[in-house]
Amino acid sequence: MELLKSAESQHVKYISWIQWLKNLRPEQRITGLYICLVSFILRVMSLRVFFFFALAGVVTAAQPVSFRHEVVPLLTRQGCNSGTCHGSPSGKGGFVLSLLAFDVPADHLSMTHDLAGRRVDVFDPDLSLILRKPSNALSHRGGLKLPKSGRAYRIIRRWIAEGCQMDPADTPACTGIELQPKDVSVLRWPRPTAQLRVKASFADGTTRDISHLVQYTISDEAIAEVTPDGRLTGRKRGQAAVMVRYLEHVVARAFTFVKPVPGFKWSNPLVANFIDEKVHAKLRELQYLPSGLCSDSEFVRRVHLDVIGRLPTIDETKAFLSDKKPDKRPRLIDSLLERPEFAPFWAQKWGDLLRLTPSAVTAGGVHKLNRWLVHSLRDNKPYDAFARELLTASGSTYANPPANYYRTAADMNDALETTTQIFLGSRLACAKCHNHPFERWTQDDYYGLGAVFQRVQRQAGARPGEMFITMARSGEVRHPRTGRVMKPWLPGEGVMDVPPGDDPRRVFAKWLTQRDNPWFAKVEANRLWAAVMGRGLVEPIDDFRDSNPPVNSPLLEALGAEFAKSGFNRRHLLRLILNSNTYQSSSQPNAFNADDELLFSHYRPHLLTAEQLLDSVCQVTGVPENFAGLPPGTRATALPTPQLNNAFLKVFGQPTRSSACACERPQEPRLGQALELLNGKFLHGRLEHPANRIQKMAAEGKSDDEIITKLYLSALARAPSTGELAAARKHLSGASSRKSAVADLCWIVLNLNEFLFQH
Amino acid sequence: MRFLMMILAAAWAVGCTTAKPEAVSFRADIAPLLRAKCQACHGERKAEGDFRVDSFTELMRTVADEPARVLAGQPEASLLLELLVTEDADEQMPQKSEPLEANEVALFRKWIAEGAKFDGADPALSLAQVIPAREHAAAPVKYPRALPVTALAFSPDGTELAVSGLREVTVWNPATGQLLRRIPGMAQRTYALAWSPNGGTLAAGGGIPGELGEVRVFNAATGNLKAVAHKAGDVVLDVQYDANGTQLAVADADNLITVYHADDFSTRLRIDNHSGWVMALAFSPDLRFLASASRDRSAKIFEIKTGEPISTYGGHGAPVLGVAFRADGKQMFSSGRGGKIHVWKSGLADIDGKRFGAEKVAEISGLGREVYKLVLHGNLVFSVSADGKARVHQATDRRLVREFSVADGSDWLQSLAFHAPSERLATGVHDGTVRVWDTKTGKLLKSFTATPR
To answer: Measured between CB atoms, does A129 come within 8 Å of chain B?
Structure first.
């Protein structure tokens, strides 16, 4: 109607038709042109005004503004319903909106009925507080969020003027959104920019351009920026994902920004297996050159620590370094994978995930489940069987240790959050109270998954500390907001019908461990990759989401496929990774990869874990640590449960196992660690210890060179250089007390980055 | 002809130059600018740089060792003017908005030059209170759609029902639903109506949300404006005459309670105690006390003589929207968000003890999402709720006597009025309907849409 009125006022001055056309909204222009044409023709007819009305009225029957499909998405786009503003639980200034619009009817009441409807004025829309405040006509703590000249303001204003209607009950719902242009994911300099558009599909088969209604966010602002209007522009080379949100629909796409590097020429480095092929493909695309291979010293130390969690002995080091055969590296890998230390070391990683502590499952439970984990890994139990046994475990926690899975996950919420975090790599906890802010998980999905675990019963057993896990025959999950009974739900599959008497956990586990399950294989492959490479392809390793894409998607797909194809054989996948040149690359960067931290162009040095550090210090000095309640000689990397009173382990990040989150082991260095290494009791206790084997060598009168060489070989898997030898000799000879001079040497070597870091 | 025109033109020109220009008024010229452009960051709640402009007194405050903010007669030496005209982007005011127009700056300059005088009654009043009341646009002849009914009042003889309108108050026949007359000149919205006990005046409280609040008192029969009794920075939410009609109490969204003498509208008492909007007021039966319900989640009782708070009830834990005294003054009823009516001891019996933290007696729950203003008459407590139902409970034992609802469910009820002699209850609905009930029988007497069409 407004189109009509504005057209009418222009009808005498045809020159200003052009201006009138320009002022129309884009979707009205075709219609406007039509009116102009018809009007021009009718100028010569006496009934032109009547015809004008008739035709224009028929043609411009405008659709009323949709609250759900236009106004509410704008509240998200303009930032009104974000968690820091009106989307917070108590809102702001008394105005509460649902977080990112997960409750549209409540938002409607908030805007129209709350406080006697003071926020909207259908008679004088410009007096509505909902327009005046965010346009800075009245003071608004949130600032200018809705400029008066913008399209969003006009749409909301029109909705108010049309009476603040809620959509009719039969309004076709939005079934999905699509990011366009469809086939663009690589942007190159000199013009690394793209104009994104979004199309929505509705249940009645129609589609609409909703580019002006969606919220665009980018995963890494350093790489690229995306404007609120969807203009994507690269800032520097790299990869970033654009996430688009429209109501509960979220889509994301990873974009690669390629910038030619002057002087870059692909050097065709050697490829050991498909892993290297995929890594090199990505490096070549972004114009990085991989570094060469690491030295044998670096390799023997690195692979021992990664596979069995400890330094190579001096004899092992010497044997490897002097081995002349060309396949010594693959042979070493094979032998390490069969070593008895392998299983306890990797069982400890699963102990972290399963939160194995005496307080959760009793001391007896800890040992039983740890033993089960060790046996599973020793026997190389396929990962799908492993997962199924855990997820469907029932019975006594003593007789059937995997049943402890449901002991540490003490209720439905815990069980579903733990399961999704460990096996689906997704942090679902946010969706407990509202739709997930970064992902497509909705509250419905959360409680649908909860229905899988709702009937797990936990009862005390006959023996002290024993618990029985059983499945009840009844027990429903109700959606906390709508009260609806939720049926078990599988991501990607939808609601599943579980016949009464069946265990929904079995149905879930079967779905999870299928070969083609999109998450199962990739999550574990990513976890194995991160364990030896120092960083996952998806990082954090339990935060898989569209807005956090893998740094090398083809590689992750290939690893997942290989893992599934091999029957979920973990040793097989580890063997492949360890044999790749990517794993064996040097940590020395070159001119063409110095600034790469994500794409594995060179090995990324990272601090040893707390347990590895403790064991390494013990091994170098030859003084083992005693752990309470465990046989003497038990190493920290084989501990079934954390020793909570060990200050050294704690400061270097031993997790308390209170959550299944990968973030429990902090990645960032801390001041306490530096202090522990400088003056800590643990380290210093070993330097002058009578059993310290370096001290014993000195006491036995061995030569300076022997002592120094043994120290270096033990700690760093290499002989000292001439310069290092000279400096050390000088220190030893110039010292008044040989004992304290040797202690000094030990202390220095144990504080070297080369010792503390995997490199 | 042309010669005549020239003479006229010359005379007009001379007239222009010799005419004495009007002095700049603080109330009409300066205060509105300060309020619109400066008060958000330099007001009572937030005072950037410790510089407040929310009243004349605050504006003229001198701070030791600081340049004078406003130096009467010397605009160039006044810090205020310097900040308005400076070219330095970090110092220019308003900082978060466009600079003032040239003519607006000129007003400030002229006002200071003319002596920076205050042309109002009380320099300590807030800007909103001194800015002269404006004339509101006329109400539309026909409303394009229905307006939520946010205020209702029966005339003392029960023959007329005043209803909130769009920039007016409409008066209807409650029996027939016929529009009797329209009282123009009101602000955009009316949130409270109070008919004086003698039927002569009608007080209407309301305003423009977020912008201003007013109480306009009209001659009930003729609709002539008697006075703009009260002004505020945001809307007025309740207006109550006491039982004698000698006092008029006003609650507004500036968190203030004001009691006026009903005859000359002089201020008797101003209470600045609540930290949130005051949603409802009630006089005690003996007229010594005034109870208030506030969005700050408390209900309070004040002694009118001194203005001192006597009692505070915090049991709601949610905005309190209505309050009423029991007939003997010993118990209080208050309603609010969460669908509850709380009953608590007024503590007035121990006046010397001056008890704070009033003691809860009981609560009535399950009344829908929000319960609005309460009306108490005799032993009956009337309430309306967002669940579309009106209810009456007994004040003594809190038993539900009757529920008033329509079969198909109703939009939120927002207002109510009770006429004791005829025992009729009028309820106002968000969709513009007014329903008149016979409270004795529970029968719906009349239902009509209270908008002129």
So the answer is: yes
B295 contacts A119? CB cut-off 8 A: no
Q: Is A170 on the interface with B (CB under 8 A)?
A: no
Going by DSSP bridges, is the β-strand pair B320-325/B331-336 parallel, antiparallel, or unpaired?
antiparallel
Interface probe, candidates A113, A118, A138, chain B, greatest B C-beta count within 10 A: A118
Q: How many CB atoms lie within 10 A of CB A340?
A: 10
Which tens digit of pLDDT belongs to each residue from A175-211?
A: 999 999 998 899 999 999 999 999 999 999 999 999 9
Closest CA to A551 of A239, A91, A206, A329: A239
Cα–Cα distance list, A677 to A652, A732, A746, A757 (Å): 10, 22, 12, 13
Residue labelled with tokens 């044997």:
A319
Q: What count of residues does chain B have?
A: 453
Q: For the CA atoms of A382, A383, A385, A390, what is the dihedral angle to 10 degrees?
A: 140
Q: How far is CA B6 from CA A291, A755, B10, B15, B16, in A?
A: 94, 103, 6, 14, 15
> Helix or strand or coil: residue B333?
strand
Coil, strand, or helix at residue A3? Answer: helix
How many helices and strands, by DSSP H and E, does chain B display? Answer: 6, 28
Q: Which of B166, B235, B319 sits opposite A123 (nearest CB)?
A: B166
Asked if A132 lies within 8 A of B40 by C-beta distance, the reply is no
CB-based contact, A94 to chain B, within 8 Å: yes
Chain B residues within 8 Å of chain A (Cβ atoms):
39-41, 96-97, 140, 143-145, 147-148, 150, 166, 188-189, 191, 208-211, 235, 295, 319, 386, 411-412, 414, 430
Assign B44 a pLDDT band (cuts: 50, 70, 90).
confident
| Alpha helix stretches (DSSP H) within A603-752 | 610-621, 647-651, 671-679, 681-687, 693-699, 704-716, 722-733, 738-751
Helix (H, G, I), strand (E, B) or coil at B69: coil
Contacts of A483 (CB under 8 A, 6+ apart): none
Q: Are A131 and A160 in contact (CB under 8 A)?
A: yes
The rounded distance, in Å, linking the Cα atoms of A533 and A541 is 12
d(CA B198, CA A50): 58
Residue A127 forms contact with B (CB below 8 Å): yes
Instruction: Give yes or no for a contact between B341 and B335, defined as CB atoms under 8 angstroms apart.
Output: yes
Q: In residues, how long is chain A?
A: 759
- Give me the mean pLDDT over the A415-437 stretch: 84
Q: What is the pLDDT of residues B381-402, one digit of tens each?
A: 999 999 999 999 999 999 999 9
Which residues have a Cβ under 8 Å from the Cβ of A648 and sit 6 or more positions away?
A610, A613, A614, A676, A680, A682, A683
Looking at residue A461, the DSSP 8-state letter turns out to be -
Contact criterion met (CB < 8 Å) for B145 and A122 = yes
What is the spatial distance between Cα B143 and Cα B432, in angstroms, rounded to a whole number?
11
CA pair distance B151, B238, nearest whole angstrom: 9
- Alpha-carbon distance of A655 to A637, in angstroms, equals 13
Query: pTM for the whole thing?
Result: 0.81
Alpha-carbon gap, residue A521 to A416, rounded angstroms: 19
Measured CA distances, A326 to A277, A296, A322, A323, A332 (Å): 22, 12, 12, 9, 12
Of A127, A129, A163, the CB nearest to B145: A163
